[in-house]
Design brief:
The protein has twelve helices and 16 strands. The chain is an alpha/beta fold. The chain has three domains: 61 residues, Arc Repressor Mutant, subunit A; 259 residues, Vaccinia Virus protein VP39 (Rossmann fold), CATH 3.40.50.150; 93 residues, Beta Barrel (OB fold (Dihydrolipoamide Acetyltransferase, E2P)), CATH 2.40.50.140. The strands form three sheets. Strands 3, 4, 5, 6, 7, 8, 9 and 10 form an eight-stranded mixed sheet that branches. A five-stranded mixed β-barrel has the order 11-12-13-15-14. Strands 1-2 form a two-stranded antiparallel sheet. Helix 1 packs across helix 3.
Length: 494
C-alpha cells in the first residue's frame, strides 16, 4: 500500500475507533483507490500499537483495553499444546522424526547435562542452536509456569496493565513471554520487545508466532549490555516500558546491578521490573544480593516479596527465598527425550569439561523430566510504591535488626513469610524477614493452635504479626529462631 493510502487508513481509524468497530471493508471505501480490505487489515495490524487497537475474531478492530488487567488465574496445569507442537517441529526440522533416539537424542541429552552442570558450577554457557533446543525441552514448562504466576501476582495487585509495553532482557526461548501473553488473553494489546543475542532467538520467534494477532513482537539480537532501550527499540514510546523482565539471566551478567540500573531509566513511572531466577541456593541468594545493590545504588524500591517493613532499613541475611507451586504436566517432548533409545556410545557427546556423574543413565529414569515449579523472584519499582503499606508500631514491635538485644526473650514482631515449610518432618520451619534483619530469621512452629495457625496457612509473601514469640540464636545455622508455641499468637496482616 502506498504511503498516502496508509496515512488515510490511519486517519479514518483514528476517527472511527471511538464510534464503532473498525471494518477493513468499510475503511477501504474511504481510501483513495479503494485498496483490498485484506491490505487495509494488514495496515491496521501493523499500526495497532500506535493506534491502540486489537483485532477481534470477526476481523474487525476495536480500542485496546486500558487500565489494570482483569485476569482469571487458577494456576498452571501445563504448557499449551501449540507451543509444544512448535518445539516438536523445530526438533524434527533439525534432526528428523527420530530426534529422541540414537545420535541426535544422545547429543541433546549430553547438552542438557552439560548446561545444568556448568550452570551450577557458575561457568559460562554458550547458547548455540543445540543448547537452545535442549534448554527449551527441559526448562520451558517450568519457566512458563513461574512467569505466569508472578505476572498474576502483579495483576492481582492492579499493577499489570491490560495492554502493556514489555521489554524482556535476555529473553531466551520465551517462557516468560508466553506466560504473560496467555495470562492476558487474546483481547489484550501486547507490545513485546525482546533482547536476545543467541540462537535462542530463533526458537523465541517460532513460539511468538503462536501467540495471536494482538501480540506485536520485536526481537533485537543484541546483548543486554549493548542494547540501549532509549535508542535501539522501535515504536511509539520506545523509551518507556510498563514491564521490564530479567528472567534467568541476571546470574549470567558480569555486572548485573549496573545493567538493571540502566534499564530502570526506561521504566514507566508506574512500571515494574520482574526478576526471575531458579530456586537453587546460589542463584536465589544471588538475586537478593542484586536486589539490594539495585536498591542501594540506583534507588529502586522492593515492591515484593522481600518488603522492607521498617522505613530506612535494609536486610543483610542470606535470604534463600523462593516460591513453590504445583508441578505442571510433563510435556511429550520431555518424555520422548527421557525415554529415547541411546546410541552405541552416548558418552561420546559429553564435553571433556563435564564433571563426574554426568554419564548416560538408563532410558526412562526421569533424568530429563522437569515439571517442578520452584522459583525466586523480585518485583522492583522506581516510584516508592510497595505491595505492603503496613508499618509496624515501633513502640509495640521489635525490629529484627535489634535481635541481639532480645535473644531468649519473648517479643512482638512483624514479618513477611518468605518460604514454604523448610522442615524435613520435624517442626514446621519458615524463613521470615522484616527488611531490617542482619541475619536470617526462621519461625519454628513447635505447637500449633488456633491462635497461631496463620503461620502455616498463610501464603508465601504474606505479612504476619507475631505476639509473644520466643527469640533464640541458632549457632549451627548462624541464624535466629522465632519460636512459635502455645503461648504465641500469629495473625495475618496482609
Amino acid at each position: 500500500m502506498r504511503p498516502d493510502q496508509r496515512e488515510q487508513v490511519r486517519h479514518n481509524a483514528r476517527y472511527l475507533r471511538e464510534v464503532r468497530p473498525l471494518d477493513p471493508a468499510e475503511i477501504s471505501d474511504y481510501v483513495e483507490g479503494q485498496p483490498h480490505p485484506g491490505a487495509v487489515a494488514q495496515v491496521l495490524r501493523e499500526e495497532a500499537p500506535d493506534l491502540r487497537l486489537v483485532q477481534r475474531d470477526d476481523g474487525t478492530f476495536v480500542p485496546a483495553p486500558e487500565g489494570p488487567a482483569d485476569v482469571t488465574h487458577d494456576g498452571v496445569d501445563a504448557v499449551p499444546r501449540r507451543y509444544v507442537r512448535a518445539l516438536e517441529d523445530a526438533l524434527v526440522d533439525r534432526f528428523g522424526s527420530g530426534w529422541p533416539d540414537g545420535e541426535s537424542g544422545d547429543r541433546l541429552r549430553a547438552r542438557v547435562r552439560e548446561v545444568k552442570a556448568r550452570y551450577h558450577r557458575g561457568l559460562d554457557v554458550e547458547y548455540d542452536g543445540l543448547t537452545a533446543l535442549g534448554y527449551a525441552v527441559y526448562h520451558l514448562p517450568a519457566t512458563y509456569a513461574a512467569a505466569r504466576y508472578v505476572f498474576a501476582e502483579l495483576a492481582r495487585d492492579g499493577q499489570l496493565p491490560a495492554s502493556p509495553r514489555v521489554l524482556d532482557v535476555g529473553a531466551g526461548v520465551g517462557g516468560p513471554a508466553l506466560g504473560l501473553c496467555d495470562l492476558l488473553g487474546e483481547e489484550s494489546l501486547i507490545e513485546y520487545h525482546a533482547v536476545e543475542p543467541s540462537a535462542a532467538a530463533d526458537l523465541l520467534e517460532r513460539f511468538l508466532a503462536e501467540t495471536g494477532p494482538n501480540v506485536h513482537p520485536s526481537v533485537y539480537r543484541s546483548t543486554a549490555e549493548a542494547f540501549d532501550p532509549r535508542i535501539d527499540a522501535d515504536g511509539p514510546g520506545s523509551d518507556s516500558y510498563d514491564i521490564v523482565v530479567f528472567a534467568n539471566v541476571l546470574s549470567e551478567l558480569d555486572a548485573p546491578e549496573a545493567v538493571v540500573g540502566r534499564y530502570l531509566n526506561a521504566l514507566a513511572a508506574d512500571g515494574s521490573v520482574v526478576a526471575l531466577a531458579p530456586a537453587d541456593r546460589n542463584t536465589a541468594t544471588g538475586l537478593r544480593e542484586i536486589e539490594r545493590a539495585v536498591e542501594r545504588e540506583h534507588g529502586a524500591t522492593v515492591y515484593a516479596p522481600t518488603v522492607r517493613l521498617w522505613p530506612g532499613e535494609r536486610p543483610a541475611g542470606e535470604c534463600w527465598s523462593f516460591d513453590v507451586r504445583p508441578d505442571v504436566d510433563v510435556p511429550a517432548v520431555q518424555r520422548c527425550l527421557d525415554e529415547g533409545a541411546r546410541g552405541p556410545d552416548p558418552a561420546a557427546y559429553e564435553r571433556r569439561d563435564s564433571p563426574p556423574g554426568t554419564q548416560d543413565r538408563s532410558p526412562g529414569d526421569g533424568e530429563f523430566v522437569n515439571a517442578d515449579v520452584k522459583y525466586a523472584f523480585g518485583l522492583w519499582r522506581t516510584d516508592g510504591h510497595c505491595r505492603v503499606e503496613f508499618r509496624p508500631d515501633p513502640d509495640r514491635t521489635a525490629r529484627m535488626a535489634d535481635a541481639d538485644s532480645f535473644v531468649t526473650e519473648r517479643v512482638d514482631l512483624a514479618a513477611i513469610k518468605l518460604s514454604h515449610d523448610l522442615s524435613e518432618g520435624d517442626n514446621p520451619l519458615f524463613l521470615v524477614g522484616d527488611g531490617s534483619e542482619q541475619a536470617d530469621h526462621f519461625a519454628v512452629l513447635t505447637r500449633e493452635s488456633g491462635l497461631n495457625r496463620d503461620l502455616a496457612a498463610a501464603d508465601y509473601g504474606a505479612t504476619l504479626r507475631f505476639e509473644n514469640a520466643l527469640v533464640l540464636w541458632n549457632d549451627d545455622e548462624a541464624a535466629y529462631n522465632v519460636v512459635v508455641d502455645g503461648e504465641t499468637v500469629v495473625d495475618r496482616v496482609h
